[in-house]
Write a structure and sequence with these properties.
With about 110 residues, this protein is α+β, with helices and mostly antiparallel strands. The protein has a domain of about 70 residues. It has a 4-stranded antiparallel sheet with strand order 1-4-3-2. The structure holds zinc ion (ZN).
């Protein structure tokens, strides 16, 4: 017969499982399309080519064209708000976590 103390040692620990699942949810990004005019300062002269520095790709797919073409664009001379730019369809997206916290704020 097994002593009760040994049995309880092998019980699954639901608290651990919950914590792990919550961690995954927090890392899922919510992408909202935004007006490029809000993020990018084009100035008055549209004929001037826009210079944008991107800071690498992200693993999320573009919500519109479903391609892994999203690039991180941080604030710079012509960029007012950090955002994700899709090199395929040219759309801009804001990214935040499911709890509403911005994912692009440093
Ligand atoms: Zn796209």
């Amino acid at each position: 017969m097994t002593p009760p103390a040994l049995e309880s040692r092998f019980q699954p620990q639901p608290q651990h499982a919950n914590r792990r699942r919550t961690g995954l949810v927090q890392h899922a990004l919510v992408l909202d399309e935004m007006d490029p005019a809000l993020a990018i300062d084009r100035g008055d002269d549209d004929s001037v080519p826009l210079e944008l520095l991107t800071f690498g790709g992200v693993r999320e797919l573009c919500p519109e064209c479903k391609t892994p073409s999203l690039k991180l664009v941080l604030r710079q001379k012509t960029v007012r708000l950090a955002h994700l730019f899709c090199a395929d369809c040219g759309r801009c997206f804001d990214a935040h976590y499911s709890n509403g916290v911005s994912a692009l704020t440093i």
